[in-house]
Batch of 2 targets.
Target 1
Amino acid sequence: MTDQILTLKEVAIYLKLTDKTAYRLASEGKLPGFKVGGSWRFKREDLDAWIEVQKLNKPKASSRAE
């Protein structure tokens, strides 16, 4: 099975976050997840795509010469 579904706890471990932070980000719609019977679930491929977008949106350090 290529579509791996993760629990909130597994996502927290995967992203190296606390459970509370992962829950907050999911609740705020900042992590790509969905609820099943009141519990958060996440597709690993959605998280990987989200990570790539976050890398692209990362603020770049100023490189001005003084």
Target 2
Amino acid sequence: MIIASQKKKENIAEYLLYMWQIEDLIRAYGLDIDRIQQQIIDPYNLPEAQKKSMREWYESLIDMMRSEGVEKKGHLQLNKNVLIDLTDLHLRLLKSTREPFYGAAFFKTLPYIVELRAKSGDEKVGELETCFNALYGVLLLRLQKKEIKPETLKAIEQISSFLSLLAEKYKQDKAGELKLEND
């Protein structure tokens, strides 16, 4: 909860990946708030009021996961909405004559996206979601201490660079500092 709100302010891409981790963490604990309380919340040396807030946050996520039918797989609508917002900004950035560097970064990343989509066999997944899926997949491989091929690392490096740029543009947009239209 604390990390999530901090990441949402600082880097929307990291926030989304973090929230995907939280979804998987909740699933790993069987959507059991008491287990989450014992294993995740209680070990923190926090005031009781903060622990209570954390429990309520996890409970609300569990409730949403159940009501949205994503107990086993998939993502919460609130996380899908972040992806929708990012996609909207992405498209606006690509259309803007004021952001040639963004367009260049995207087109440098596009071959990796196309290759990843072809490997996944799911052509319906959007470009940005493909990027996030790749980053999340590598994150899981690293957590499992599995080997990652050099060509995969090269792709991930480019995708990370591109999503970092998008996250920075998102932050600028939210702060009212991003001017995309030609004046």
